[in-house]
Every structure is written in C-alpha cells, then in structure tokens.
Amino acid sequence: MAFQSPIQDPDRIGPHRHRPAPFIRFQCLIRHLARPEAQRRFVFADIHDLLANLRPEEFSDVVSHGPDVALSPFRANYLCGMVEYAAGLKGVRPPSWTADVAPLREPWFGTDLKNLRLHLLTNSPAPFRRRNIFIDSSIGTRV
To answer: How confident is the model at residue 2 (pLDDT cuts 50, 70, 90)?
Structure first.
C-alpha cells in the first residue's frame, strides 16, 4: 500500500490558495519540512513523487515559489537539488529562488561507509554535487 501523506493544509498557503492543487501540495510539503524530525519522515519522498509526476508544462508553475519558512541549510539544499535535478529531466529552467540558496559549507554523504564515498563523489547528480550533497539516487529513482 502506498503511503498517503496527511499534509493537506491549503489554508496555510495564504494568497496562493487559488493556485492548482500540485502548487498547493508543493507549498504544504515545503512547510512540513520545517517541522521537527518526527513529523516529517516522508516529506522528501512525497516531494520526489510530486516532482516526478509533473508534466514539463506544469512543473515551472508548481515550483515557481520557494520556501517562505526557515529551513535548515541541509533541507534547503536538498530541496533545491531535487527541484534543479527535476527541471533538468523535464528540459525546463529551474526556478530562480534555487540560486539564492548557498551550498552547504561541509560535504554531506548519503552513507557513513568510507569506501562508498569515492563512488558518491563521482556519481552523484550534478545539482546535488554543486550543493555539496553526495547521494546515489534522485528524482525518478529510490533506494
């Protein structure tokens, strides 16, 4: 059974409440990223699924507005990496707000295994590498 996220709060979106449902969903998911760890277990997976299922013509509108909540540097960069990677897959430009997020100062690896770090350094998707995040999968794939 697929996980159905309970994140549906269009009233918290303010002036955007009359936008298409995927836009509101994206904004709700971003707000959910700012919550404590226990309350956001599947948020990145939900963002992944949303971005992966958007058609190129709707993608730019859905991601047109970035976070209006404070995110940790890691969460902000991971979100930007996902959006930039998805934009590349769809053949559209990433939204301008992603350029305003400075890359992480220290590298972050998707594993603690030292012998896999070289693999991650060379095989991570470019938008994540630019943000100093080294992972093995992204939009369209899961581990």
So the answer is: very low
Question: Which element (helix H / strand E) includes 76?
Answer: helix 73-90
Domains of the chain by residue range: 20-134
Contact (Cβ atoms closer than 8 angstroms) between residue 46 and residue 30? no
Nearest to 71 by CA among 110, 92, 43: 43
Per-residue burial over 2-24, b if 16 or more Cβ lie within 10 Å, else e, is: eeebebeeeeebeebeebeebbb
- Residue 113 CA to residue 94 CA, distance in Å, equals 32
Beta-carbon contacts of residue 92 (< 8 Å; ≥ 6 apart): 56, 59, 60
Instruction: State the burial class of residue 134 (Cβ atoms within 10 Å of its Cβ: 0-12, 13-18, 19+).
Output: buried
Residue 91 has what DSSP assignment? T
